[in-house]
Amino acid sequence: MPAYHPYFYTVKRVVITCLLAWVPVLLSAQITGYEVGDIAPNFTGIEPDGTTHKLYDYTASGQYVLLDFFAYWCGPCYTNAGYLQAFYEKYGCNNGTVAVLGNECDVGGSNDDLDLFFELSGLDPATAYPSWSGMDGNGADVCNIYSPAAYPTVVLIGPDNRFISIDIWPIASLGDIEDAFPNGVLMPIDCNWASSVSDRPEPLFGLSLWPNPASEKITISMVTPAAGAMEWSLVSLTGVPVQEGLLEQVSAGRQQQTICLQDLPSGLYVFHYSMNGQDGSSLLQIQ
User: Fold this and answer.
1) Separation of alpha carbons 246 and 275, rounded Å
2) Are residues 42 and 113 in the same domain?
3) 272 lies in a domain?
4) Which domain holds residue 98?
5) Residues in CB range of 120: below 8 A, 6 or more apart
6) What pLDDT score was predicted for residue 238?
7) pLDDT tens-digit profile of 32-72?
8) SS3 of 74-133
């Protein structure tokens, strides 16, 4: 367990009541103004190295997003960070069905404060789950949008941008995090199987897949600059093609195309597509 600053030895959870007073609280719903099933607003967070993270980029690729709201001075947040890091590494370092992101909320929180937070959590800032500070990384603005009432607050957002959980608490094991996910979503994978979402370009033609997760069919929404035929394939995480097809008549402009899916095992797949000499890919969850 990471060592706490002495001030936090007796504090389980903290909420700011004024500039100089913190009191421990236990609340049943830590994101104020939202309920399970509501649409989570998009946001942009900027890591110390300049990497930008946008919620809707992750969800458009089919991923669930586990979002950690914390403050760099919050002792209980140190413990949470350790569990979130273990979860992050077990499920692919944001390369699988779920992305773990950290949003530091203090308006005065700097990138140096963020690094110190992870060090006090027993983690290496260079390999910790992607996070950004309140002052330097836009985290305070994100917190103003989401309004977490206490730190830490961990929320789960689905590929449809809706809240699945607005407060995963308490977290005393990996199982407490895993239990928040729908059955069949989580699949342990190696962190190096593919590039992370933040390293991939924007989807070609602005392509998105719906529903995601899917079962019997998917609808492709896109804007194509010219007419043509689109070749597509579904590939497992092990690189094995499991289904492929051809859309022969794809017109130019904004449109939707529907693809019927074969009886495939539940899991995460990569949807590859090619049109007019251009290639793209997106993640698709089959349930």
Assistant:
1) 10
2) yes
3) yes
4) 31-178
5) 2, 3, 4, 5, 78
6) 59
7) 999 999 999 999 999 999 999 999 999 887 789 999 999 99
8) CHHHHHHHHHHHHHHHHECCCCCCEEEEEEECCCCCCHHHHHHHHHHCCCCCCCCCCEEC
